[in-house]
Amino acid sequence: MSIGASSTWPDGDQKVYFQPRRLGHVNLWVEDVDISERFYNQTCGLNVEFTEPDLIASFLGTGHTPHDLGMMETTKGVNRYGRDGLLQLPGTIGLKPGLNHLAWELENEAELVAGWRRLQADKIETDITVDHQVAHSIYMFDPDGNYNEFYCDTLKDWRSLLSGPMELLTSKWDPDVAEPFTDGRYDEHPELRRVEGAPVEPYRVTHAVLETARIDEMLRFYSTVGGLHIVKRLEGAIYLAGTLDAYRYSLILVPAAAPCYHHVGFELKDEETLQRCLDRLAAKGLVPERVVDLPWKHSFFLIDPDGQLSEWYVRRGELPDVAERGDVPLAFAV
Fold this sequence. Notes:
Elements: E1 22-30, H1 33-43, E2 47-52, E3 57-61, E4 69-73, E5 80-81, E6 87-89, E7 98-105, H2 109-121, E8 128-131, E9 135-141, E10 147-153, E11 164-165, E12 171-172, E13 204-212, H3 215-224, E14 229-233, E15 238-241, E16 251-255, E17 260-267, H4 271-283, E18 290-294, E19 297-303, E20 309-315, H5 330-333
Parallel strand pairs: 1-4, 2-11, 7-10, 13-16, 17-20
Antiparallel strand pairs: 1-7, 2-3, 3-4, 5-6, 8-9, 8-12, 9-10, 13-17, 14-15, 15-16, 18-19, 19-20
């Protein structure tokens, strides 16, 4: 059964398949990986943690996870293979820049495998299960066709394996081949690094914003398969979060005429940091796509070489009342 095509769910709407801690990273399709890597590294201040040249991919972050932001060059219609002949990127996908996938971090392998087995028992379709060497992952689509990765870390000290250009990392993974481990292997005390000279000083990736014309179906997917809970539901937006309290929300669904990935959100340390970032951008002649100054957040949006948006923000007080956003477009105001 395809979740996206069905409005009837096994055992009622309350069944939960995965329960992520947080949004671990966002992965993008980009037209030229070298150009996009320079932008996110030298302007946005994300470290290049490692690359996969054969996959034409780069992975950048702050240190909270192996990467906050991944990027893969568009396939141009050509298949790309992982380890052991795995068809990792079919040439039929990734034909233009945009969202590749959202990645949801689970507590451990036992939870990941249990969720997978529940999906299999209920005949809910998944796409592929893989071993990334530092993570085991299950991929599937939401009702709008957005790709989602549900994963668990398999190595706490991921920097001992991942650094610089890497040979192909990804191979097939069988969730039933061994007894799953029950300990959490994410890094609880990460070493955070910043890029000297970059105008922006990111702290961590926190959330993504998706526009959708089928908000009820999308909510059902992300609260059952995705296991996220509703933090706040407004007339104009739904805020969803994982189990990790340090992250106020992980996904925002916004109603729109057509489905669209709108942006990824990166939290900054404080207002002083945000102003320093704006001053440095101005000194380099770089103008944000939009600056948003509202009672619930202060942020600026940057547009990357492919026209994709990222938000760099500081939270203020409670979650928003979007009816009070003035002339700020909804997806920028949430």
